Amino acid sequence: MSEQEIKVPDLGGADEVEVIEITVSAGDSVEAEDPILTVESDKASVELPSPGAGKITKITVKVGDKVKEGDVVGMMEASADGGGSDDSKKEPEGKAEEKSEAKEQEKSEESKPAPKKASGGSRKETVKVPALDGFDNVPVIEINVAEGDTIEADDPLVTVESDKATMEIPSPYSGKVGKILVSEGDKLSEGHELLEMTVQEEGGESEDDSEPASEEPAKEAKSEPESEEKPKQQVESAPEPQGATYEPPTPGAKVHAGPAVRKLARELGADLARIKGSGPKSRIIKDDVHAYVKSQLKQAQQGSGVATGSGIPGVKLPDFSQFGEVKREAMSRMMFATANNMQRSWLNVPHVTQFEDADITDMEDFRKAQKAAGEKKGVKMTPLPFLLKACATALAELPQFNVSLDMERKEVVRKKYIHIGIAVDTPNGLMVPVIKDVDKKGLWELAAESAELAQKARDKQLKPAEMQGACFTITSLGGIGGTAFTPIVNTPEVAILGVSKAAMKPVWDGKEFQPRLMLPLSLSYDHRAVNGADAARFTTVLSQLLGDIRSLLL
Ligand code: CAO
């Protein structure tokens, strides 16, 4: 077996074409004429067939590469029984079809019928299928125009598909589409009547030029606004998306779509692999692309109430009233915003939670001893200021927790300040005011500020600036109860400390069990930014600091 090059054959006049799909991989066995890859010019997509039977050893191009005639796209070992042929001699079908498309355009120019005069500088024409270079009975898979559309010469009228190539039949004229004479599925051959058009006379001094309000207005006057309206019409007629109607891409799945649809999808940034085709043989048509984009926009605007745009199927609600009496009420804006933030964080951040118990027996003794001083100052000293101070120290010691990830720019944003958010439970929902520069403040100051911000949160008095800029969050449920929980990181922060209720526990001191007040800590972190060892270090530092609060002074 000898290795031979797989080359791009004659492309029928097209200079450079883009590789849009690679259908085989190294190691695949192929038969002669099996498609190797699909290339696309601005008018047609063509499958490049294998020059013979054999085994693919290498593909040397990737999707998006531009290739031209003679370029090597891969290597293959021809099988002994009449393997690869000389591709320079052979004319692959793809070539014929690409050629046919190019010629078809030439011919359509040549074969423009003599104008039939109509009143006011326009004429009626019946557009026919140009020569398809030997192809006939090619089925229509998409009609790209609608009656009344104003189009330019070369705009695609219909898309036809043979078993090897998809071709668009371009309009030979600029003008207005009249009656469409074919339907999807019709098989077309040269000379078949496609549609009627009202063609504007070039430079004709028609009545229409001076009277744009008449039925056939001047080309310049009408074509612009109409061409703007065209996509809008398509969007409006697109089927209404029903929740999460789009599938995640299936690796290796083949996308069936014509060049115009591929171009549209590229322009709109839509991933064709995610779109379900509603055309014949599940082919993706323009309406499917519009409907997909519309559904994605809708989900984004609604804050992804049903699905997230990441291909996660939505939750279908049953009719609860069948199980008993129910009452529906609107979510508050805050509840809706919180729900979205939680979902966004939970879906975007790979969460891990690290647990630790801190011995706060001595800390609590000290805290309680401050009661009289607190009353004098009018400030209540709770465990929270100690937690704030300990977290600020741990953040300074382990600065990998004081970052945000900018995945788009592939950068880590390191913060030189230490601002900590505190989750506050209010009758209206969860709010997270932020205490700035925690590392520079004393315990009393932190106690006063956290109490003031918590009260403002409950009174709905927080200003936006008082809820922004946190590097880290503490969510304390200690006053309520619980032994441990897994808080959700308040992204773009990379960690959050959950605090549960302190409880007396027997702790082994090496000789005997001692009753100690243990505070359960739950540190959830973004595992993209922080590794497990650092998380264990962080909770260990916290536990040491809270176990001996004198070290907070160091
Ligand atoms: N273990 C045992 N007792 C605790 C404790 C703990 N971990 N934390 C606080 N306490 C005690 C306090 O000492 C106080 O007791 P005394 O009145 O006897 O002194 C009592 O519980 C109430 O404290 P507090 O809640 O008023 O004050 P705080 O500073 O500890 O907390 C705040 C302030 C704003 C964090 C809290 O009021 C709050 O809203 N917590 C809920 C946060 C929340 O909802 N998180 C969930 C977010 S995710 O859904």
Structure overview:
The chain has 554 residues and is of the alpha+beta class. It folds into four domains: 2-85, RNA polymerase II/Efflux pump adaptor protein, barrel-sandwich hybrid domain (OB fold (Dihydrolipoamide Acetyltransferase, E2P)), CATH 2.40.50.100; 121-201, OB fold (Dihydrolipoamide Acetyltransferase, E2P), CATH 2.40.50; 225-309, Irregular (Dihydrolipoamide Transferase), CATH 4.10.320.10; 350-553, Chloramphenicol acetyltransferase-like domain (Chloramphenicol Acetyltransferase, 2-Layer Sandwich). It contains eleven helices and 27 strands. It has helices at residues 93-110, 207-210, 219-237, 259-268, 286-301, 333-348, 361-369, 371-377, 383-397, 443-458, 532-547; strands at residues 3-7, 17-22, 29-30, 35-40, 44-49, 54-59, 66-67, 72-78, 122-128, 138-143, 150-151, 156-161, 165-170, 175-180, 187-188, 193-200, 351-359, 403-406, 411-414, 420-422, 424-426, 429-431, 434-435, 472-476, 495-499, 503-508, 513-526. An eight-stranded antiparallel β-sheet has the order 7-2-4-5-13-12-10-15, covered by helices on one side. Strands 17, 20, 23, 24, 25, 26 and 27 form a seven-stranded mixed β-sheet that branches. Helix 9 (383-397) crosses helix 10 and helix 9 packs across helix 11. Mean pLDDT is 81; it is low at 82-119, 204-245 and 304-308. Oxidized coenzyme A (CAO) is lined by residues 382-384, 422-425, 430, 454, 475-479, 487, 499, 501-502, 519. One of its GO terms (biological process) is pyruvate decarboxylation to acetyl-CoA.
